[in-house]
Write a structure and sequence with these properties.
Blueprint: H1 2-57, H2 65-80, H3 83-105, H4 109-112, H5 115-150, H6 154-160, H7 173-176
Helix pairs in contact: 1-2, 1-5, 2-3
Length: 184
């Protein structure tokens, strides 16, 4: 009789462990999906702000129409990208195009004095910061999920129920380069 209770106790313990591990995997996967949704929200905000900025500066920047076209093309490519593998490079290209636009805007004093331009520029900067924080949260969420999926013995449950690792959002090599600063 004592052996029966021991076997039942072990069975209950294993069942509870299986249930808790499965629920933890579901929770981590949902957190990762939520983190991606938060990035998507901030990217949408960014995508909505850029046409407004281009519209405000296009008349003043008559000689810079090619730069404005590049910003619009990069924005359109970023809007059409989906998933971390496509979004990362598309957003990097958009960041580069907007950075070039901001640099060119410095040559136009009337733009630097325009309240609408300044407000849009500030909103874009704030949005960029929010995107950075959302990317960090996403990568942290992915790390938690991937650790659980790959760790023993949870990897048996993960494999059985189809949980897989997810890709981090990586910084493209072009953005890893240290900017060169010259004081001359």
């Amino acid at each position: 009789m004592d052996t029966t209770w021991i076997v039942i106790g072990i069975g209950v313990a294993i069942g509870l462990w299986l249930m808790m591990t499965y629920n933890r995997l579901v929770s981590l996967r949902n957190q990762a999906k939520n983190a991606w949704a938060q990035i998507d929200v901030q990217l949408k905000r960014r995508h909505d702000l850029i046409p407004n900025l281009v519209e405000v500066v296009k008349d003043a920047m008559g000689y810079e129409q090619e730069t404005l076209k590049q910003v619009v093309a990069a924005r359109n490519a970023a809007v059409n990208a989906s998933g971390p593998a496509e979004v990362g490079p598309a957003e990097s290209a958009l960041t580069a195009a907007v950075t070039r636009l901001f640099a060119l805007m410095e040559s136009y004093p009337q733009l630097k004095a325009n309240d609408n331009v300044m407000q849009l520029q500030e909103e874009l900067t704030t949005t960029e910061n929010k995107i950075s924080f959302a990317r960090q949260f996403y990568n942290d969420s992915i790390m938690g999920l991937n650790n659980m999926v790959e760790s023993f013995p949870a990897n048996f449950i993960a494999g059985t129920f189809g949980f897989a690792t997810m890709a981090h959002l990586d910084i493209p090599d072009a953005e890893r380069a240290v900017p060169k600063v010259s004081l001359r």
